[in-house]
Structure formats: C-alpha cells, structure tokens
Amino acid sequence: MAIDSYGYLDFITRQVIKAWVEREQPRPIPWTPLPKPLDQCTVALVCSSGIALKGDQPFDQEQERQNPWFGDPSYRVIPQGATSADVSIYHLHIDARFGQEDINVLLPMHRLAELAHEGFIKCSAPSHYSIMGYILRPREVHELEEVTAPAIARSMKNEGVDAVVMVPS
Amino acid sequence: MGLVQRVLEANGLATVALSMIPVFTKAVGVPRIAAIGYPMSRPMGKPHDADGQRAVLRCALNVLTTATEPGTIVELPYVWPETRAQAAKGGHVSPPIGQLLIRKPWLIPKLVSGDIPESE
After folding, report:
1. pTM to 2 decimals?
2. How far is CA B54 from the centre of its chain?
3. Which whole-number Å values give the CA distances from B108 to A16, B40, B60, B113, B117, in the listed order?
C-alpha cells in the first residue's frame, strides 16, 4: 500500500493503533452487493465526528471528562441540507476547526446533493447519521454494535437507502 | 466505525469506508475501503474546496461499483500538501485520556493492550 496509515498520527496514537491492528483477529467480512447502478441508488452518509443539530442533545462529553475511558456510543440524525450553522461538533479527539468552518469536511452532504444533481447517484437519503468515534469500553462497544448500529440500519431501510459512505474523522 | 459498517452491511446495505488509517480499518474487517492519505479531522479535504471534496466522495462511491470481494481496498490518488507538523499546526487536541495518561503513565499498557478499565 502506498498510503502511509500512520503518516499524520502523533507518536502515541501511532503506537496504540499499531498494537490494536496486531491484536485484531481475522473474521468473516459481511457483504451486500450494490443492488443497482449508482445512478439509481439512494445514498446515506455516516460520520464519526460527534455532530449533532443545535438544539438536539449533545454527545456526552461531561461523562468522558469525568472518566476518560468512557465515550458516548449513541448517534444523532442530521437531515440532508443542514448547514454548518445548524450543527455543533462534540468530539474531544479531533481538531474541529475545519468541520466547524465547513461541515462538508466531515459530513459531505452538499457534495452528495451535487452528485445527485449531476446524475452520478439517484439521490441523497433524507437522513444522515453521526456517531462519536471514541468508543473503548466493552460496555459502550456493545451498545454501539447491538443498539446504535441496528437502529441506524433500520432507519436507513425505512428511507430506502441502497448504499452508504462511512466518513471517519 | 468499522463495527457500525459491518452491522449495516450485514443488514443488506452496501457500504464503503473512507479511511485515513486503512491498515486499521482493514483489520476491523469491513467490506470496502477507499484509502486516502489525508490528515485526521479532514477526511474530505479542505474547507470550502467543493471540487476536491466532491472528487473524494465520487471516488469512494465508485468503490461500491468496482469492488467484487469483501476486504477490497482502493487507494485514492489525492495527496495532502502539508507535512505532519504543518497539518497539526495551531490545532492542539488534548483529550481527557491523554491528560489521564500523562498523570498516570502506568495506565498506558491498559490502552495499548485493549484491557480497558471501567473508570480511572
């Protein structure tokens, strides 16, 4: 691989992630074929930047400050068309300046609308989703897998989503 | 994030992960990866660079069409124009876990080994 996964990480983060990579055991990978050509697909986005609509409940940063091993495993819905002024970023591990200036850096909703306009995809889903990517404790990992992710999947199925782009931060 | 992606895919949704740390995303076991050499906190590129962001998104979506087997990685051709030091400039991120580990460095092996404590 030409891309250096560790190129932009600080020393400590690099060591931690290297150890995590070495520890992961290979497991079966799920697979759903794209059901139709992209220009007939409804597309949703998921980001891990801890974005919430202003007025919606923030991700729980207070509990993480009290207990740094905790991370909020819930999710928020961001409606297609929300602007940078409509949202706040609640994530203690990222440099939020760029996303605050232009939400498309973290959740490219407007770019998705443009791709729909030019016919590259059929349309954007009405809803996109944000989680907060710092989840360590088994309890929160379990909630992410067993509660949050299935709820996002159900919501997407209800909105006729065919394809999903996951955007990290 | 990879865990969420696996659940979505298992529920009948075709998914692709953009990833700045593709070796990690791959290790989690996700079906499709669009790898990109951009710094953390800027997965889609620079603020207000609509053309650049749209190109990245288009490439990621294309992986949904071209990938034929689980675990596919496609490396996107875009290069970030800054070094690590330049990219990190002015944006000091100091999460609670970092402050804790400076105070109690003997907890570092817990984080590295994945033996995560319930609380401090």
Report:
1. 0.96
2. 18
3. 9, 22, 35, 9, 11
CB contact under 8 A, B23 and A5: yes
Measured between alpha carbons, how far is A135 from A124 in angstroms, rounded to an integer?
Answer: 28
Q: Report the complex ipTM.
A: 0.96
pLDDT in tens, chain B (120 residues): 999 999 999 999 999 999 999 999 999 999 999 999 999 999 999 999 999 999 999 999 999 999 999 999 999 999 999 998 899 887 778 899 999 999 999 999 999 999 999 987
Contact A166 B1 (CB under 8 A): yes
B16 neighbourhood in chain A, CB within 8 Å: 163-166
For residue B107, give how far its alpha carbon lies from the nearest alpha carbon of chain A (Å).
Answer: 11
Amino acid at A5: S
List, as own/partner pairs, every contact residues A29-33 make where C-beta atoms lie below 8 angstroms and the sequence separation is at least 24, other chains included. Answer: A29/B6, A29/B29, A29/B30, A29/B31, A29/B70, A29/B71, A30/B6, A30/B9, A30/B10, A30/B31, A30/B70, A31/B9, A31/B31, A31/B69, A31/B70, A32/B9, A32/B10, A32/B12, A32/B13, A32/B14, A32/B15, A32/B31, A33/B14
